[in-house]
Specification:
about 350 residues; 4-stranded mixed β-sheet; mainly alpha; single chain
Length: about 350
């Protein structure tokens, strides 16, 4: 291969630097947005070490998380398996937020960085923004700010009420987190004006359809008359809005012994669980989507006449360069660590 043709390659070796990452990202972005027409959040790519990836594992992938003993236990477990060679680490980690944050392992080769960039920064990203369950259960623009609020709120509660009391309510919330999410959309609660309007319409309908003949009918038999216990049970279910699938929400709203700060902690855990469950529920659909993207990205440059690329006889495809500029990041890093940052406009 000629020297001029070799200069058109996106990268030449397994080593990477930020200039090569930016050039490769621009080429992938051109295919993703121009050819595939993906609709994605703005991307923010960050480089992290293996220890920071283990830290992310322990906090269920969230860059901001409160302190709890279970996270330390998970970190020791994952670190033990990794050090003994019984488990590898993910090549990347992506967060459903706006901007979409993608963490890349610094140990990756340049070819792997290109693969996971297409896989996560565009495959995951597109799915996050357009999937029904993610739109229903999560608010990408508010996830990071809400996590920051929850972390600071729990820290203040520990200072005011003691770590023992806060740990007790967190332990209970963690035990019920699997049943702490709304899996089915329910109709919104009507306002007072709407309730009064419906009551007025119901009374008007009863007046229009009233017939005095119903008064002459004999009373219903005793077998059809519900007992007092059944009536009380029905009224109690109605007052408590039962059945209720979200146990954390039910305890937050109806508990007679919880203090306001404890209710707020339960509400925080329910919101966090909704983010994680949406990802787990759609894992099958998302896996097919995110694996198709990098495959298409790697094949597309070798198809002549597409995406402003040309392939001369015996030469590699020429990539039209795109502009790159960096900006200061405002998103906090993982707990206790500061990854290298590579932010994209």
């Amino acid at each position: 291969m000629s020297k001029g043709a070799a200069s058109n390659l996106l990268f030449h070796s397994s080593d990477w630097n930020f200039e090569t990452l930016a050039r490769t990202y621009d080429a992938i972005e051109e295919i993703a947005l121009g050819d595939l027409g993906l609709d994605v959040y703005p991307n923010q790519l960050e480089i992290i070490s293996s220890e920071q990836m283990l830290d992310a594992y322990s906090s269920v992938g969230m860059p901001l998380m409160y302190q709890h003993w279970s996270f330390g236990k998970r970190f020791v477990f994952e670190d033990h398996l990794y050090r003994r060679g019984r488990r590898g680490l993910a090549y990347e980690l992506v967060i459903n937020s706006n901007p979409c944050i993608t963490y890349l392992m610094e140990e990756n080769t340049m070819a792997m960085q290109a693969l996971v960039t297409a896989h996560a920064a565009f495959g995951h990203n597109h799915f996050f923004k357009n999937n029904y369950l993610f739109r229903q259960w999560t608010d990408a623009s508010a996830i990071l700010s809400y996590m920051d609020f929850a972390k600071k709120y729990i820290s203040k509660c520990e200072e005011r009420h003691g770590t023992t009391a806060v740990e007790a309510i967190l332990d209970s919330a963690h035990a019920l987190m699997e049943q702490g999410v709304f899996r089915y959309r329910r109709p919104p609660r009507l306002s007072t004006e709407k309730e009064q309007e419906r009551m007025r319409e119901r009374l008007e309908y009863e007046e229009q359809t009233f017939s005095d003949l119903w008064r002459t009918l004999p009373p219903a038999g005793e077998n059809n008359d519900p007992t007092q216990l059944e009536r009380e049970l029905s009224e109690r279910k109605k007052s408590l809005n039962l059945p209720e699938e979200n146990l954390l929400y039910f305890l937050e709203k109806t508990s007679l012994i919880l203090e306001p700060w404890q209710r707020e902690i339960l509400r925080n855990r329910s919101s966090d669980r909704a983010v994680l469950l949406s990802a787990a529920t759609d894992e099958g659909h998302e896996r097919g989507m995110r694996h198709f993207r990098p495959l298409h990205h790697h094949e597309q440059p070798f198809r002549p006449g597409q995406n402003k690329r040309r392939r001369d006889a015996g030469d590699s495809p020429e990539v039209i360069p795109m502009s790159f500029s960096s900006r200061a990041s405002t998103i906090p890093a993982f707990r206790g660590s500061t990854p290298m940052r590579w932010d994209l406009p």
